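User: For documentation purposes, I need each entry recorded in a consistent format: the amino acid sequence on its own, followed directly by the corresponding structure tokens. There are two entries in this batch. Please keep commentary to a minimum and don't merge the entries.

Assistant: Recorded as requested. Entry 1:
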Amino acid sequence: MNKNAKEHAPSSESSCNAYRLAIEFIGKRWTGIIIYQLFEGPKRYHELLNAIDGISDRLLSERLKDLEQEGLLRKHVIADAPKKVEYELTPPGYEFIEVFKAIMDWAEKKEAYLNELM
């Protein structure tokens, strides 16, 4: 193990388990893109459905419920007729911006590295 890897190694079994659960959660199909779409601010269900190419009604509903249960988004019911519902990230949900930036930075560096090899 190199020095860099040692510095970032999990410190305990509980932190390793927490990491595993977090990665499995955000790694669920469509979860990341739903969070990404909500970075811009609240959106209605059909706005999300139209913005995410290929997601089904059932899966969008399921993922929105998952994100709400995890405390990453709030569902606002607007009492107008007809009923309107908006979804908005909570403060912990907005913290994913840093995670997404880190992943994009890593992906760009990896791509640049691979391009250098060719």
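Entry 2:
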Amino acid sequence: MTDKKQEPSPSKDPLHGLTLERIVTHLMESYGWEALGEQIRIKCFTSNPSVQSSLKFLRKTPWARTKVEDFYKYSLRKNKLK
């Protein structure tokens, strides 16, 4: 009997390995703050937006982070990211 190590299967999660900072930056680069604020109606994207202020808000607000992550996955499926 040989003891084969099973290779870990690649994750099917499109967010696997991505940081929140990378997600926000990628969305901002693809859409711009104005369009991003129209797509995801949260104040950190509409009122004096920056990556750092958005990260601060999203890290402590789970419902908003979920909206951003869901929009990122949607954008990936629709090939809308640069």
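Summary note for entry 2:
The first helix runs from residue 20 to 39.
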